[in-house]
Amino acid sequence: MKQTIKLLFISLSILFSIDTAAQGGGCGCTNCPQFMPDNFRGDFLINVIGATNDDLSDPNQGVCEVRLTFNHQYIGDLEILLTSPSGQEITLVGPIALFGESDLSTWEVSFVPCAVTPVPDPGLPNIWNNLSMTRQGFDFTGSYHPSDGCLEDFNTGPVNGTWILEVIDGQPVDFGTFINYEIIFCDDDGINCNSNPCGVFADAEAPSFACQGDTVVIDASGSNGNTFVWGTSDGTFVGNPSGPTVAITTSGTYFVTVSDNGSCPEVATVIFNTVPEVPTAEITVSGILDCNNPEITLQGSTDQEEEIFISWVAGAAVDPDNFNPLGMDLDLEIDEPGVYTLVVINTESACSQTATITVEDESVFPIIDAMVNDTISCTNDTISITAAADIEDSVFEWTGPGGFNSSDEEPEVVAGGTEWMRRLSRTHCSNRYHTT
Questions:
Q1: In the prediction, which pLDDT does 11 show?
Q2: 66 and 96 fall within a common domain
Q3: Rounded to the nearest 10 degrees, how much is the dihedral formed by the CA atoms of 236, 349, 37, 65?
Q4: Pick from 340, 359, 378: which residue ends a domain?
Q5: pLDDT at residue number 426
Q6: Domain span at residue 303?
Q7: What string of DSSP letters covers 179-211?
């Protein structure tokens, strides 16, 4: 069964970056990347001009390779078709069917002519079939023959013009991102996909995903131009966006218009998504740490029950280079004061949350004093000792020579020597005092 909510793609510990395509520049897609919501259907364009050999029927001309970069939660949803300016069409990716999940997988693949032996990913067939692409958490990088047809089928009509890559999501629930595609012509003499008269080129890079609350930088410094105007259709910038780099924290489609002092503008687009699977982390304490409770339990909690990794560490910061967990369950028993941090990681999204608590020893030790009221002598064989303390409602325990014991606050003694008094506070903390 297809799952209702999944991530697009993220490694467990490191978010990776993508080079976003620009309008103008290179021979790539002019309107990439694009987020592909459920039931998406859209065209991705390449505008070719200047081909010296503009005839696909020429034996020396043709399509020698097509490169695709995309991701999707369920590859069986997708069909991708390529159409030439004259209307010839082949199916690169397909067919649409219930094949299985492809969460956390990416495709940076190529398609070669049927007369050329492809190099598919290990264990996969030469001809693309969505059924073979249902691995999860896998980076596909091989070369294939198209799902239906051959690159050799582009054998009539012009090279120059608009090439259309149509992406169809034909089944419900899942989604993805189409990042870029490129067409390699067998004779590329004269071909120029950047017709900008000022030589302006727009390019922007950013992580494709990050955890909610993270600040992400979009970098357009690889562009060729001196003026940058930023915009977004549904996102939010941090501060006033200006210059070649900007900061963002929310999902959305962001674009930068690069120009030569306002002339010859080109646009690059970035699609950024925050990952929803960010766990919560909270800590409660079973009681106070003191003489009466020498051991307490730190009780961790999170809103996620599955696909989580739990660890406790000492201190307020987690050092990945020196990771020595105190425990790996939600509850942690401790007998020492200090700073403790609970780390909760969603193992699917790699997003984490921490909670920190400072535990103090709340033991209250009484301050005690004692005074001998007289001196034992031949005529005075019994004296009293008066105790003084800073805490009321305490318990007194006296010991002395000859097995002397007393629980009175002012005991009477009949023999000389050193008397010991131990006072217990209401928290069962004790202190000692001796008098002679």
A1: 27
A2: yes
A3: 110
A4: 359
A5: 41
A6: 282-359
A7: EEEEEEES--TT-BS---TT--B--EEEESEEE
35 found inside a domain: yes
Distance (Å, whole) CA 252 – CA 256: 13
Contact of 132 with 145, CB cutoff 8 Å: no
d(CA 232, CA 235): 6
Res 4: pLDDT? 29
> Over the stretch 97-156, which tens digit does the pLDDT of each residue have?
998 889 889 999 999 999 999 999 999 999 999 999 999 889 999 999 999 999 999 999
- Where is the domain boundary, 195, 227, 244? 195
pLDDT band at 6 (very low <50, low <70, confident <90, very high): very low
Please, are residues 311 and 281 in contact by the beta-carbon 8 Å criterion? no
Read off φ and ψ for residue 76, nearest 5 degrees. Answer: -65, -10
CA angle at 183 for the pair 99 and 209, rounded to the nearest 5°: 55
> Quick check: is 267 in a domain?
no
pLDDT at 310: 93
Tokens standing for residue 100 = 């299985």
> Is the pTM above the cut of 0.70?
no
- CATH code of the domain covering residue 402: 2.60.40
Q: Name the 3-class secondary structure at 139.
A: strand
Percent of the chain beyond pLDDT 70?
80
* Confidence (pLDDT) at 9: 29
Query: 3-state secondary structure string, 216-254?
Result: EEEECCCCECCEEEEEECCCCECCCCCCCEEEECCCEEE
Burial of 370 (0-12, 13-18, 19+ CB in 10 A): buried
pLDDT tens profile 205-219: 887 678 888 899 999
pLDDT of residue 5: 28
